[in-house]
Amino acid sequence: MFRLVAGIEEAGLEDAIARLLNRVESLRYPVYREPWTRERIRRQWLSYSGYSPENLVTVITDTSVPVAIAWIYPIQGCGVVWVRIDPLIALTTATKVLEELLSYARLLFDTRGAARGVPVRVHVEPLGLVRDALYRVIPGAVAREGGALMAYKGSGVQPVLPPGYRIESRSSIAGDRGLLARIVQLVNAAFARYSWYTPSTLRDYTNYINYVEEHYRPLYLLVWSPSGELAGYLLAYIHPNLAGGISGYIEELAVHPYHQRRGLGSSLVAEATRRLHHETRYVYLNSVRGLEGFYQMLGFTVAERKAYYEADVHVLPQRNVVVM
Ligand SMILES: CC(C)(COP(=O)(O)OP(=O)(O)OC[C@H]1O[C@@H](n2cnc3c(N)ncnc32)[C@H](O)[C@@H]1OP(=O)(O)O)[C@@H](O)C(=O)NCCC(=O)NCCS
């Protein structure tokens, strides 16, 4: 009844996956939605050096329409299974599909030597249907809250930079290898506090910035310390094509641990929001869990909460799956 296809080499598959993902995401918060295209799929999966075809599987029905897609990859101390299932299928079908995908994930984690007891995070969408299917397949899955999509509503506090620090804005950094290397170092140092974070390499980050500059109108803000160090970094862009029209999106924010809690992070967000809001109706960002209050102080509200489910790798169903 189902066929699991690894990678995206099969003819026409990228477009079919893009259609599936757009259908799933049309159920989300009505304004923020970046359409999936072939190029976005390639950026998301192929441009990262950790990509390997077997990490990406599509479940296809006998009518050759994809009904689900999963991206399976390890992060520090945890395996991730990112699943999107067609919202139009029935619960019994969704349960079978999820069973196939999770058995496959288990096989992959097992063959790669995942240690006993490693938690598996299953990020599922659409939440209602897939959550019910997930509980049928893994009754022991535990729901956890992820971060949140935040939308700017206005009237946040006006932070001030400490003396001697200054913000520089740029519209392109793609050719500046020296600066890119400093940014990668800064971002890795700032995000090291999160157990789920995998450090970026200069190569991956450069690919990513090239993509951003080809497709959006970026805004980079850099905070320089009194002694000329790069202390803070923010990447935002104007997106021409989010549902709801032209929108501003704050993609990345990092302050070097040595310079934190001095008002740099909030000054960066306030400055970016002021500039983006001047040109667009909506400004969005995705907050990690626990920082929602920081963004609320700056005038954002929670538009959509994210959830994921955690389970032990040995709770995943064990069956023989055939992958094509
Ligand atoms: C989040 C981050 C950018 C904040 O930068 P910062 O320069 O330290 O922030 P500010 O000094 O402007 O903080 C202002 C206020 O925000 C709140 N705040 C700052 N960091 C916070 C955190 N990690 N958790 C909760 N509240 C926080 C505090 O109320 C703080 O005021 P206080 O220092 O008087 O208590 C920085 O901690 C960082 O780089 N973190 C790692 C990367 C990251 O999480 N990026 C954001 C992803 S969405």
From TrEMBL:
GO terms for molecular function: acyltransferase activity, transferring groups other than amino-acyl groups. It holds the Pfam family Acetyltransf_1. It comes from the Archaea. InterPro entries: Acyl_CoA_acyltransferase, GNAT_dom. Gene3D superfamilies: 3.40.630.30. Residues 167-322 form the N-acetyltransferase domain. This is N-acetyltransferase domain-containing protein. It comes from Pyrodictium delaneyi.
